Amino acid sequence: MAVGLVMQFDGIGADKYEAIMVELGLPLHDDSGSSWPQGIVSHVAGARPDGGWTVVDVWESQEDFDRFFESRLGPAFEKVGGMPQPDVSPFQAHNIFRHGR
């Protein structure tokens, strides 16, 4: 079952987010999907009015995200450094609209 993850990061902005994306080899504004990890359905990220950063992902399963975190995202956080622990709110996806597919 698909899972949504709302991840709130305090104290980071576009510069830190973009450094993580570069480290992951995921180009910004790439809608081809060719370099995105297996199991990702959608990814949206942006600045909050309070100066923090929000990432909203939908994954085919929690296991897909966990595998990505262990193999790529966690190491990217360590390499870039200065990443605070996010406040994560998971939810089970009830409905998913896949535009363009």
Describe this structure in words.
With 101 residues, the chain is an alpha+beta fold. The protein has 2 helices and 4 strands; from the N terminus they run E-H-E-E-H-E. The chain has a 4-stranded antiparallel beta sheet. Helix 1 (14-24) packs across helix 2. It starts with a strand and ends in a 9-residue tail after the last strand.
Structural topology:
Elements: E1 3-9, H1 14-24, E2 40-47, E3 53-59, H2 62-80, E4 87-92
Antiparallel strand pairs: 1-3, 1-4, 2-3
Helix pairs in contact: 1-2
Count of DSSP E strands?
4
Order of helices and strands: EHEEHE
Strand order in space, largest sheet? 2-3-1-4
Please tell me how large the radius of gyration is.
13 Å
The SS-based structural class is: alpha+beta
Shape: globular
Largest sheet: 4 strands, antiparallel
**Residue-averaged pLDDT, rounded?**
92
In short:
This protein is α+β, with helices and mostly antiparallel strands. 30% of the residues lie in helices and 28% in strands. The protein has helices at residues 14-24, 62-80, and strands at residues 3-9, 40-47, 53-59, 87-92.
Top keywords for this entry?
four-stranded antiparallel beta sheet; alpha+beta; 101 residues
